[in-house]
Amino acid sequence: MGDGAASGAVVSRSSLPFRISTPVGLAAGAILVLGLVLRILGARGELWFDELWSLLLIDEMKARHDLLWGLALDNNHYLNTLYLYLVGADAPTLLQRGLSILLGTITVAVAGLAVRSATAAGPLAAMALFAVSYPMVNYGSEARGYAGLILMTLLALLLVERAAAGSNSARRRLGLVNVLGTMFQPIMLGGLAAEMAWAGWMHLPAGRPTRRGVLATIRATALTFSWTVRLLIPFAAIIAFAVLHADGYRIAGTLPFTAQGFVEGYGGLLHLLLGLPEETPAWLALTIAMAATAAASALVFKADRTRLALYLIFVVGLPLLMFVARLPNMQFPRYYLASGIVFMLALCDLFAWAWQRGAAWRATALVLLLAILVGNAFADARLLKDGRDQSAAVMQMIGQSASGAGPVLVTSDQDLRNRPVVEYLARRLNLPLTYVPTAEICAKQPVWMLSSSVDAEMPDALDTSVVGCKKMFIKQAAFPHWGLSGLPWIVYRAENQ
After folding, report:
1. Cβ atoms of 92 and 456 closer than 8 Å
2. I need a surface site. Which of 104, 166, 288, 326 has the fewest CB within 10 A?
3. Domain of residue 404, residue span
4. CA distances (Å), 306 to each of 120, 150, 313, in order?
5. Are residues 443 and 294 in the same domain?
6. β-strands 472-479, 408-412: how paired?
7. How does 227-254 read in b/e, with b if 16+ C-beta sit within 10 Å?
8. Cα separation of 79 and 68, whole Å?
């Protein structure tokens, strides 16, 4: 089936069934500018550990005279690493985060296209949510691959229906979007699986399932993603070469699956997207989100099986599959971004539905939307005020203790995670700090000890004594961590120094 047939067979999610008036255009432009400003302001401050790790990968690549495909590590977000390689480790922070700012701002515009509404209320609500939402601002203003992942997920959602309807050009664009998303962040593959399930739903024949019908559905779904598979094959080959070249794929760290971790991860993301008070437990945020999805399914999507399938597959099915698979690291909200993106679209569709149901419904919807936006605005304000973490403040505090007789010696309880931060910021901020590996504490007698563990887990006095070497560190200050990025810091000083 060609593009012409496809255009008549499906209503694209990117088509607008209403006329864009001057007030609507001005409102959309103002929201877009707001999104850009928030991301620029959010990009201030120094890089934090996960961003620095990409710079370490680039140093590793240069030391080994290797290409990007030699970096077989889960923190290698290929396109983001390439961008940082091009701009350089000494570039201004705003430039290092510039690609994410650009992609994050484009995301705000695309979000308006991703909501199907008979009025401008739904698209404007989507733009406002994606512009102000703390997770979107956070990931849209830091030098990692999540801004690209979010944008490509939205673009894929816009293309799947047309690709499933037979549009060859949509299949090609869908393939490009999916491979770009995967190269920004490999967890795009989870969203891709959900896309395939959604397309399979669209291809299901009416009536009772039969063997022939199931086979036809599989063939049609495979055709929908034919370009995706073709374009992913070279990327898969690069990964395979990297794994063989590096003697295995390295994962920086994993924590085993727990049900509580799942609730904290998925519920934590939904908590932030809804702008709920900080004291709200993750399980309650998860409950509220599932209730909102159920309400949207019953009120808005009962007459549209395609959209109903979209929201149930992404918001319910994909996280449930992750839970059943008992995947590690489920406590990190970022691994549920595909589900969170679609949940936000469901909220906007529900808002648009209420907007057309009279004054009472409209007022209720507007109050709820404003509550979500205000809650996220408070989180944004905290990000803009405190930054992602206080790494630079910690290093400056220690650096000010220099007596002029030589460098300040600093050690930590985690060389792998903390040493790169100390050495990078010492160089970046021109501080007289020298890092002492844990194994050399007794030999070099550092004055300062840093820990990036949670403050509640660390004692007031840290004993690092071994046989023949007594060394005690006393807690001096704590710099707590909040939000989706950054590290907590606890500062110790050697006893009697």
Report:
1. no
2. 326
3. 391-494
4. 21, 22, 11
5. no
6. unpaired
7. bbeebbeebeebbeebeeebeeeeeeee
8. 10
Closest CA to 458 of 476, 441, 433: 476
- Helix (H) or strand (E) segment spanning residue 446: none
The strand pair at 408-412 and 433-435 is best described as parallel
Q: Is residue 391 within 8 Å of residue 46, measured between CB atoms?
A: yes
Q: What backbone phi and psi angles, to 5 degrees, belong to 362?
A: -65, -45
DSSP 463: E
Task: Give the pLDDT of the chain (497 residues) as one tens digit per residue.
Answer: 344 333 333 444 545 555 666 888 899 999 999 999 999 999 999 999 999 888 887 877 776 666 555 566 667 788 998 899 999 989 999 999 999 999 999 999 999 999 877 788 999 999 999 999 999 999 999 999 999 999 999 999 999 999 999 999 999 999 999 999 999 998 999 999 999 999 999 999 887 888 888 999 999 999 999 999 999 998 888 777 766 766 666 666 678 999 999 999 999 999 999 999 999 999 999 999 999 999 888 888 777 888 899 999 999 999 999 999 999 989 999 999 999 999 999 999 999 999 999 999 999 999 999 999 999 999 999 999 989 989 999 999 999 887 767 899 999 998 988 999 999 999 999 999 999 999 899 999 999 999 988 766 788 998 888 767 888 999 999 998 889 999 999 999 998 77
Please check whether residue 388 is in contact with residue 479, taking contact to mean a CB–CB distance below 8 angstroms.
no
Strand partners, 449: 411, 492
**Whole-angstrom Cα distance, residue 122 to residue 138?**
23
Same-domain pairing of 181 and 92: yes
Domain boundary among 343, 367, 386: 386
Block residue for tokens 């085993």: 256
Taking the C-alpha atoms of residue 444 and residue 439, their distance in angstroms, rounded to an integer, is: 10
Whole-number Å distance between alpha carbons of 362 and 297: 19
Structure tokens at 301: 């999507």
Q: How far apart are CA 78 and CA 64, in angstroms?
A: 17
Which of 353, 386, 419 terminates a domain? The answer is 386
Answer for the pair 350, 292: CB distance below 8 angstroms, yes or no: yes
Task: Count how many domains the chain has.
Answer: 2
CA distances from 442 to 405, 437, 462 (A): 20, 10, 14
Q: Tokens in use for 348? A: 């906007």
What crossing angle do the helices spanning 359-386 and 337-355 adopt, rounded to 10°? 140
Query: pTM of whole model > 0.90?
Result: yes
Place of tokens 């949509």: 170
Looking only at the bridges linking them, the beta strands covering 433-435 and 489-494 are unpaired
